[in-house]
Each structure stands twice: as C-alpha cells, then as structure tokens.
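@channel anyone free to eyeball this complex?
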Amino acid sequence: MQSNHHISLTHVRPFGFKERGFKRSLLLIALLVIVLLIAIFFTLVVGSLPTIKAFGFSFAYNRTWDPVAGQFGALPFLAGTLLISFLALVISTPFSLAVALFLGEYYKRGVISGIFKNIIDLLAAIPSVIYGFWGLFVMVPVVRVLEMKMGILPYGVGIFSASVILAVMIMPYAISLSRQVIQLVPEELKEAAYSLGATRYEVITKIIIPHTMSGLFAGILLSLGRALGETMAVTMLIGNTVAIPTGIFAPGNTMASVIANEFTEATGKLYTSALIEMGLLLFIVVTIINMIGRKVIRHLSFDEYKDVKK
Amino acid sequence: MKIKQLKTKFLFISLVSLAVLLTSCGGGSADKQAQGGSGKSLIGAGSTFTYPLYSKMFHVYHQANAVKVNYQSIGSGAGIKQLQNKTIDFGASDAPMSDEEMKKSPGAIVHIPTCLGAVVVTYHLPGNPVLKFTPEVLAGIFLGEITHWNDPKITALNPDAKLPSLPISVVHRSDGSGTTYIFADYLSKVSPQWTKGPGRGKSLNWPVGLGSKGNEGVSGLIKQTPGSIGYVEFAYAFQNKMPVASIKNKAGNFIAPSLTSTSAAANVDHMPADLRVSITNTDAPDGYPISSFSYVLLYKNQSYDNRSEAQAKATVDLIAWMIQAGQQYSEPLQYGKLPESVVKSALTILKTVVYNNKPLL
Amino acid sequence: MAEKTAQIGMDLIYRRKRKNSLFKTAVIVFSAISTLPLLFILFYIFRQGIAAINWQFLINLPKPVGEPGGGIANALLGTVLIVLVAAIIAIPIGIFTGIYLNENRRSPTSYYCRLSVDVLQGIPSIVVGIIIYEWVVRTMGGFSAVSGSLALALMMIPLIVKSTEETLKLLPYSLKEASLSLGVPYYRTILKVIVPAGMGGILSGIILSIARVVGETAPLLFTAFGNPYMNANIFKPISSLPLIIFNYATSPYNDWHQLAWGASFILVVMVLILSMITKLIEKRWKIQY
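replying in thread with the prediction:
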C-alpha cells in the first residue's frame, strides 16, 4: 500500500525505474554481443599459444606446411585465400554492378525486377555445400575441357573454379549494397543532367557512379569479407594442394579449407594449435577488412547522404 | 570529453576482463561425465573408414540386445581426442595411437582390432589395363620422380599393357585421413627416400599432386582426369568398379587386393601382445602389403569419473560381440575378417579391462 | 559549313545514342547471366533428389548399407529441434541488440557492437564449431543438441541484429515522437509501437537467418554430434539433415549417395520455402510511411 502511494507521488520523474531498467538491459545485451566476440578472440588466442610460442611471426610467412615434421607456415594458405577472393571480386563485380544498375536504375519496380530480386536472394540462401556439389559435378568438367583446349594439365579443380563459384556466392552481398547506394543518388541531380540532354549512359557514368563510388567500394569490401571466410564450397573446388599457386588454373588451398580438411584428424598439440592459429589469422584479416568497409560506409551515411536519406 | 573517453576506456577494460573470465571458465571446468549411464545407450566416435561396417553391426546389436549405440564418423584423430576428453564411451581409429598420444591420455588405453582394411592403388588410363607395381616404382611415382606412364620402369613391369606417353597426375587425400596414414606407413617401410621426405602421417607435405576431400573426392578426380593415379580404400574401389594395381609384397609375390589377401596380411607369427602394430609390408607370403587393422579404443580402467558399472560392462560386451559374432558382417561390406589368432589375442586384451579392479569379461 | 557542323552534331548524337543502348543491352545481358547459376543448381538438385524421395524416406530411421527403406526421420526431427532451440536463444538477443543499435546510433558502444556483429558474421562456421565445443561440450561433459543450437544461434545473432536494425532505421522518427508525446513510457513505446511497426522486417530477418543456418554442417560436427536413433531430448546427441548428407555423401556406397541426394533435396526445399515465407511477410507487412 505504502509503496503504491509513493509511486503516484513521484510523477515528476515518470516511469523512471522501469525506464532505466529497460535501457540498461538493452545496453547489457549489446555489450553481451561484444563480450562474445572478445571471448571468441581469446579462446582462439589461447588455443594458438603453442604455435605462437614455437614459430612467432614466421608462421605468417613460412611456406612449409608439414604436419609430419611439425613444421607449420601459413603463407601458401594466405596466398591462396587472397588470390581466390581477389579473383572472385574481379569476376563478380561487373555482374553485380550490372544487376545493381538493372534494379536500382533501369527497372526499379515491376515484375521483372521482382523476379530478379527473388533470384538474387535465393542465391544467398543456397547452402554452401550445395554450391560445392554443383561446382564439382557441373562446372569442373567444363573447366577441364577448357584447360585441355588451352594445353594445360586438365585438373578442372583449382584457383579458377573456386573463384568462379565464390563469385556467384558473394554477388548477392555486393548487389544489395550497391543497389541501395545507387537508389540514394538525389533525383534532382539526375534530372538536372537529363534536362541538359544527357543520355542514361552518361547519367550513369558521369553522375551515378562517381557519386556512389565509396558506397560501391564498401559493397565490394564487404563481399570480400564474405569471400575470405567461405569454407565448404571452396574446399571442394580448390584442389587442396599446399603450395603457393603458380597460375590461375593451378590448384591451391585456403585458410578456411585447411581447417575444414585437417581439423578432425589433427592429433598432437602443435598441429591442432597451428590450425587454430589459422582460424585466428583468418579472424583478424576478416575483422580488418570489415573495419575498413565500415569506415567507408560510415562516411557515406553521415556526410554525403545526410540530407538525402529518407 | 575527457570523462567520456575515460568511460569508454573503462568499458573496454571491463569487457575484456569479462571475456577472459568466460574463456578460462570454458577451458577449465571440463571433463565431467554428466551421468553414470544405465548401460542402455553407448556413444562411440572416430574412424570414417569403418562407419558403414559399424552402423551395420550396431543396428544388428540393437535389435538383439536393446542397446543403442550411437556411432559418429568424425575422423580417427577426432575420435582419439574425444576419448581423451572423456566425452564418449569408446573411440575408433584406423591407425594405432602413437606413444606420444598414449602418454598424453588421462588413463591407459587398450586397442582392440575390429576389422582389416586395405588401401588400393587406382588409376585412369585408356583401356584400363591391370597394372603391377613394385614398392620402388610406387614410391617413385608418388615422390614425383617417375613422371610419365611410358617410363621404362613401369613398362618393364607391365610388358603387356599399352602405356601412353601421358604425364602422371598424382591424386591424394586433402583431408587428414587414416587411409593416407596406412599408405604413407607402407611407403615409409619400403622407401628410404619416402621416410626422408613426406614420412608417415594422416596429413603429409606432398611433393606432387592434387588433393581432394574424402574417398569420393579422390576417385572422382581420378575418373575425370586421364593419366591420374591415386589411392582409395578397397571397399570404395570395389563398389565403384575401379581398376586396381597388384603390388609386390615382401615375399616377392605380386598380390591383387582382395578380402582374402587382406585378412592373410594379419596372419603372421610375431604379433605383439597389445596388437598396437602396423601390418603394412607384411611378412605373410599371400598377404596384400598395404593392409591395416582398424581399432576401437577404450580405457583399461573403466571406473573413471562417475561411470556406472552397467555402462562399463555394456561397452566391453559390445566390443567382445564385435570381434566374435559381429565378424560375419565384415566381408559382405568389403572389410577383411580378423584371423582366429588375432581374435584370440584381442579377447585376452579385453579381459584385462577392469572396473574397480574387477575384470568385466 | 553549317551543314557540315550539323552533320557532325547529328553523328555525335547518334554515337551517344548508340552507346546508350549498347550499355543498356550490356546491363541486361550481364544481369541475365547472373541468374543462370541458380537455375542450373536448382535443376540439378531437383533431378537427383526427386528420384530418391518417397514416403518411407521421410518416416523411417536410417538403415545399414544394403538394406532398402532407410529414411531420415531422425534427422528431420533433429534439424527442426536444433533450429527451434537456436531461434529461441538467438531471437531475443538479436532483436534487443538491433533495438539498442537503432536507439543509440552513434555511441561508441554501438560502433563496437556493430563491428562485433560484422566480425561474428564473418567467422568461418568450422571455427564456431570449435569454440562451442570448447565452451559448452567440454564443460557439460558430452555432446548435445543444445550445444549445436548454441553454435547455430551464434551464427544467427548477427543476421537478426542487422535485419532488425535495418528495419527500425526505416521507421520515421515522428512515430516515436508521437508515442512519447502521448505520455507512453519509453520502453512501451519501443515494445508496443516501434517493434510492432517493424514486425514484418524483423520477422522476415529471423526466418531468413533460419534459412541460412539450417544447412550448416561444420558447426554441428563437434556439438550436436549425430544420432542414428530417434531422440527428442535436447541434452542428448541428435542428428540433423546436413550431418547425414555429409556422412552419406562421403561413404563408398551408391545407396547412401541416393539418400544424401534425397536429403539435399529436402534441405533445399526447406530453404526455398523459408525464403518464400520471408517474401510473403515482406509483402504483407511492408513499411509504408
């Protein structure tokens, strides 16, 4: 009774307690997400201490990976990861840019663009294993024929095949961001250009693309972040040869796929630890890429489009 | 402004410490079996190679004895690790545990062989001729020293086969596997260069070739690549009707892989008492030289943690059944049957497994 | 002279027009090519999968190789159970984090939280499996469905956070102001006005995140573990569709490959249905302000 009375009297600071409690629990949950990440980071660091002690920085630039002799170096995997991610970006960018323009400029609404959007979303939804299966059974034989025509060893699997499938897999991410920034270009700017007699092509190359450059770049960076960590499909297609790739049709290996390939059979502290350190390294690389991407997007949303944003 | 910065700093420090707490908590308070177990359900994990056989055996065992055995093929290395972490009742591995692994385990572990497996050499050539290899030629190919199919060393062994001048592309497993271990173990025994080079292990630093995941990955790549050569499990090659090579064994006979020649490889006189042994390059004159035991692993002292006697008894009973009545299921699935002598020694080992110092069998 | 200039002018216009239509064609052609992979993939899975599917396949337990009539009932139940528990764990955390980020757009905590979400999303799934194994499986002393759920939840959280934040960002500020000015407390404004207004987007984000994790194999290997028998106890090992696809596809037997294709087909159909539901929700509950 007493307390009820008390509450009705403190109407000056309405709902204060519940209010703060709610805000605090929101903050707590947001902090929990950060804590989770830091905890993951520490778990990985603790797990990789044995190799860090044994090899130090040479782990990152040593090119020998010999589980039998206990020699571990990550360079071939780093090289393979960067190479396929880069190639995947090169392959996917023209396509994702085309689709982004298609959806963001040419056909903003309507049946066709609806179908297109669905297809792009489905591309993102297909499980990685299934991309791998399909790549192995359908794409690899085609690549092999191509390689035979070119007179190189017809492996079929390798850097090239892995990059192509990876390009398909990361496309949806680049498209969704690019489409958004393209739609954010102020209508007045475009109309001004049209009224001066510019063609659509000219509006796109002279207004839209320069205006959205940093946004497109961020889209590419974020899809790069996806590409780096992709595991199953790449593992099935890259050829899994521990060597620095000699060309785009050569087999290689990536950081994620060596973990997937060897973790279940790794015995011995150093071996397991080397694989965990590989995970840590991957984690760090992805974080850096994402941080740069974030920075770019932040600039974008807080400066350039401050006024335009809905 | 300053206060805000301080606040952020404080926030960050407290977050880090919280995270460290969480991490150490996860690693430290491990290793507790939740319940003693009623002996009605067992968990095993390890070898992928024996998964089809074990799933058949455990299916039959469940129908006869109402004991549910949950076996998962997570890989031999992972099976050993899970046993060491005591998350399972028994492990399964294609290769015996190394001395180092035995030392790191929290208790003595016994090895019980359950079946025999063979690793076969398969290839893709026009007309798929039946080929013969000596250990030297095999090592030469997988070391990358013999690079073409019409190399005189190969043609001398196979005068009847028409061998093209194709380059040899070697295909090997990319994932760590018992199959690779058996193959490398054999090559290490027959070739000094191999011992000096790649050596013995579940994953190797291969001098040549392409890696592919799993047996189906290797065989898929071989089927698609003319001029390729690789190694897979016998059951796999048999099921998929792949050409296999005969290998010259220690006694000097060229032996084609088969269930009989695989079982014969284990039929030798000087078997060590703990059966923790490699039988590649066998002395048996009719034995296929790239054969090996596959094991289940369990703790010798079953009264660890708060494990119940019923659970321990069920584990030992299951394994005793696998090496006796269970053997009839091996050959239909293309696994080598254990020879009588090995079953006898395995039972002797199983009788040393105790609960509170009492033997369980 | 004037004529010539006009001629050049006309030429220029034609050239510009040609360039324009050429570019448009290129955009359309490239866009069309982008859709081919999906069509190919779906065609292949459907062709292989439908042959393997029948009623027995859906209601039976797996059988050893060589015996006909093996099914995937245990894996179907397992997948549903694992994903359900994962969703129960991930949804509150994801939505509340999303609300926090939307309410505090520029605080340092938000910056680090957004960054964490991005990095969490980028962690390879096998690493997630290793982490949950260390944290949960070893602590609890055994494999369990719930540890698999935790691994999947860890992968779902970033997706839910992002979709929630994106959705709430689109709501006009006036909505919140109106509610607050009527004297509705802050927490009620959020829970009863803002969240329901963005329900469509949040819900579709949740379902999309389920669609993304339902096909994950690697995080389940060392957590949910698998189980050939029916199990509904979330503290015991449990089977799931991706796990049996993985096991059967890597076996030497054709019978089991067929089962793997059948299971893949079911998995793809599940993903497709979930995606369609997402679309329907988005359409019905489109934010219109």
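from a first look: Confidence is low (pLDDT under 50) at residues 1-12, 302-310 of chain A.
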